[in-house]
C-alpha cells in the first residue's frame, strides 16, 4: 500500500465519521429526549466538528473490515468512540485540568463558550456515546452491543482513560518512575486506542483469539501514539500541532522520551511498528491498512 492510498483511506473514514457525527449532533431531539438546548449543542459541535484525523474511528472501521464485518455498525461505533475522545479533550482542556486555550488550532470549548458549557458538553458526549452503541440502529445483536458498551466503559472509565488523567494530574506533583509512566500512558492514551482496534473483532463476531490479538495490536499502537506525541511535544511548534507544546516539560511531568532521549524514542517507535506488523501477520494482506496505521502513528508530524 502506498502512502497516498493509506492517506486516502484515512481521509475517507474521516469524512464518513464527520458526516455521521454531524447528523447525530443535529438540533432535533431523539425519541425520549425533551429538547436539545441550542447553546449546549453549539458548544458540543464546537468541540467535535473541529477537524482532527479521526484516527481512533479509523481503527474501528478498519478492524471491522479485517473480519468483513458490517460497516454501518462500525461507523456508528466509530462515531461513539469519537464522542468519548472529544469529551475527554474538552474536559482535559479545562483550567482545573491541563488549562489549554487552543485545540486543533481553534479556541478550546471553555474559551469559546465558558467553563460550565464545556463541562456540560463533555458530559453530553460521554452519555451520547453509549446511547449510539446501544441503539437498535447500530444493527447488531444485543449481546454484541452489550460487549461493546462494556468494553468502552472499561476503556473510558476509572481503570482506563479517566484514571489515566488522574495519574497525569498527580504526576505534576510527584513524577512517576518508568513503570508508572507506562501505566499512566497505557490508561490515558492507550485505552481508547486498544478499544478501537478490538471493537472490530466484537462487531464482526470474531473469536476470542482474534479479539485478543487485536487488543494487543491496539496496545502497541497506543504506546507508539503516546511516544510520538511526547516527541512532538519536545520538537514541534504550536502552530504545527494546533495546540500548546512543551507543556509536559514545563510542568516537570515524566515521559519516556525525557527518561531515555530522542534517539531511544525514535528507535523504540521502529520496534513498535515491527511488533504491530508481527501481530497482524496471521491475517495476511487483509491487515495491510492496519499495519500502515502503526507506521503512520510513528511518523506523524502533528
Automatic annotation (TrEMBL):
The keyword Lipoprotein does not apply. InterPro entries: Isoprenoid_synthase_dom_sf (IPR008949), Polyprenyl_synt (IPR000092), Polyprenyl_synt_CS (IPR033749), Prenyl_diphosphate_synthase (IPR053378). One of its GO terms (molecular function) is dimethylallyltranstransferase activity. Gene3D superfamilies: Farnesyl Diphosphate Synthase. Coiled coil: none annotated. Its EC number is 2.5.1.1, 2.5.1.10. SUPFAM superfamilies: Terpenoid synthases (SSF48576). It is an enzyme of class 2 (transferase). Keywords: Isoprene biosynthesis, Magnesium, Metal-binding, Transferase. Its cofactor is Mg(2+). Belongs to the FPP/GGPP synthase family. This is Farnesyl diphosphate synthase. It comes from Martelella mangrovi. The lineage of its organism: Bacteria, Pseudomonadati, Pseudomonadota, Alphaproteobacteria, Hyphomicrobiales.
Amino acid at each position: 500500500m502506498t502512502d497516498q492510498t493509506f492517506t486516502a483511506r484515512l481521509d475517507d473514514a474521516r469524512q464518513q465519521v464527520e458526516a455521521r457525527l454531524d447528523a447525530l449532533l443535529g438540533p432535533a431531539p431523539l425519541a425520549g429526549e425533551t429538547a436539545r438546548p441550542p447553546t449546549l449543542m453549539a458548544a458540543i459541535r464546537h468541540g467535535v466538528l473541529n477537524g482532527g484525523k479521526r484516527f481512533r474511528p479509523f481503527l474501528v472501521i478498519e478492524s471491522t473490515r479485517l473480519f468483513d464485518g458490517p460497516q454501518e455498525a462500525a461507523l456508528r461505533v466509530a462515531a461513539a468512540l469519537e464522542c468519548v475522545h472529544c469529551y475527554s479533550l474538552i474536559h482535559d482542556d479545562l483550567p482545573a485540568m491541563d488549562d489549554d486555550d487552543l485545540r486543533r488550532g481553534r479556541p478550546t470549548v471553555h474559551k469559546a463558550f465558558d467553563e460550565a458549557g464545556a463541562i456540560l458538553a463533555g458530559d453530553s458526549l460521554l452519555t451520547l456515546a453509549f446511547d449510539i452503541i446501544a441503539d437498535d440502529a447500530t444493527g447488531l445483536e444485543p449481546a454484541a452491543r452489550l460487549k461493546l458498551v462494556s468494553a468502552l466503559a472499561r476503556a473510558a472509565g476509572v481503570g482506563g482513560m479517566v484514571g489515566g488523567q488522574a495519574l497525569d494530574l498527580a504526576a505534576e506533583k510527584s513524577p512517576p518512575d518508568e513503570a508508572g509512566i507506562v501505566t499512566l500512558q497505557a490508561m490515558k492514551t492507550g485505552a481508547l486506542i486498544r478499544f478501537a482496534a478490538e471493537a472490530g473483532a466484537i462487531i464482526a463476531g470474531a473469536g476470542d483469539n482474534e479479539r485478543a490479538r487485536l487488543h494487543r495490536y491496539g496496545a502497541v499502537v497506543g504506546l507508539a501514539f503516546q511516544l510520538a506525541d511526547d516527541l512532538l511535544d519536545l520538537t514541534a511548534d504550536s502552530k504545527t500541532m494546533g495546540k500548546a507544546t512543551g507543556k509536559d516539560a514545563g510542568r516537570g511531568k515524566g515521559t519516556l522520551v525525557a527518561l531515555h532521549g530522542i534517539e531511544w524514542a525514535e528507535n523504540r517507535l521502529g520496534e513498535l511498528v515491527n511488533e504491530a506488523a508481527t501481530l497482524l501477520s496471521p491475517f495476511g494482506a487483509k491487515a495491510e491498512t492496519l499495519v500502515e496505521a502503526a507506521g503512520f502513528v510513528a511518523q506523524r508530524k502533528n
